[in-house]
Amino acid sequence: MQPVTRTVQPHRDTRANFMKRSTAKHKPWRDHYSQQAKKDRFPARSVYKLEEIQKKQRLIKKGDKVLDLGCAPGSWLLYAAKLTGPKGRVIGVDLKPLSIQVPSHLKIITADVFSLDIESLEKDFNVVLSDMAPATTGHKGVDADRSYNLCETALEIAQRILLPGGSFVCKIFQGSDFNLFLDAVRAGFKELKIFKPQSSRKASKEIYVIGLGFKGN
Ligand SMILES: C[S@@+](CC[C@H](N)C(=O)[O-])C[C@H]1O[C@@H](n2cnc3c(N)ncnc32)[C@H](O)[C@@H]1O
To answer: Rounded to an integer, what distance in angstroms lies between the CA atom of residue 130 and that of residue 188?
Structure first.
C-alpha cells in the first residue's frame, strides 16, 4: 500500500492550491485505479494487477482451488473467488485480519507465512498466488531482501501443496537475489514468465514472477 506523505504548507497556501498539486497530475495511476476499484467494489486497486495476469495467462478456472498469500485487504481474494465460482475454493492468508464479507467458498487464515503450519493447510491446489510485500523501510536493498525472503517462503509453500501442472504467481521487489529466485521457479515449473502489469507504478521495483506447469514433487 502506498505511504501517505504530508507536506507542511506555508500559511498563505490555500486549500485549493494544495488540492491542485495533489490531484491526478501527480499520481494519475493512483487516482485512476483507486477510483475504478471503488466503482468495481474491490477494497484495493491491486485487483487490476491480477486481472491483467489472468487476462494474459488464464490461470484461474471455474472450480479451481486457490491459495492467496498476503491477501489483505482482500481484492485478489474476491476476484479469485469470482473466477473459481462457488464450486471452487479460495484460501487467503495474511498477517492482518480482514474486514470484508466473503462468500462461503472462501476461507481466511490470519497468520504469518514464516510460521504457517503447512501441514495443516488443505492440499491439491491448482494455483498459489503471493502478493506479499514487506513493510517498506525506504532502503531499496533491505526491502528487496525482505521481499525475497517472502518469495522463497511462498515458493516453498507452493511446492508443498500444488497439484502437478499447477501455477504460481509471486510478487517480488527486484534486488540482488532476483535471478536466484527466477532459477528456483524455473527449476520447479515447466515455464517461467515475468510480468510487469500496467497498473503497477513504473517507479516501483515490484514485478510478478509466474511459474506455469508445476513439475510435482
Ligand atoms: C500489497 S498487500 C496485498 C494486497 C492483496 N493482494 C489485495 O489485493 O488486497 C501485501 C500484504 O502482504 C502481507 N504480508 C506481508 N508479510 C507477510 C507475512 N509474513 N505473512 C503474511 N502476510 C504478509 C501484508 O500484511 C499485506 O497485507
So the answer is: 16
Region of residue 213 (phi > 0: left; psi between -120 and 50: alpha; otherwise: beta)? left
Secondary element (H or E) of residue 167: strand 162-173
CA dihedral 101, 106, 109, 115 (to 10 degrees): -150
How is residue 26 written as a grid cell?
A: 501527480
Ligand 1: which of 33, 67, 71 to mutate, most ligand atoms within 8 Å of CB?
71
Residue 28 clears pLDDT 70, i.e. is over it:
no
Pocket lined around ligand 1, Cβ cut-off 6 Å = 43-44, 46-47, 70-76, 93-96, 112-114, 131-134, 150
Q: pLDDT digits over 48-85, tens only?
A: 999 999 999 999 999 999 999 999 999 999 999 999 99
Cα–Cα distance for residue pair 43/21, rounded to 1 Å: 26
Amino acid identity for residue 155 in this structure: L
User: What is the grid cell recorded at 50?
Assistant: 491480477
**Location of each CATH 3.40.50.150 domain in the chain:** 44-214
Q: Which residues are catalytic?
A: 171
CATH class of 44-214: alpha beta
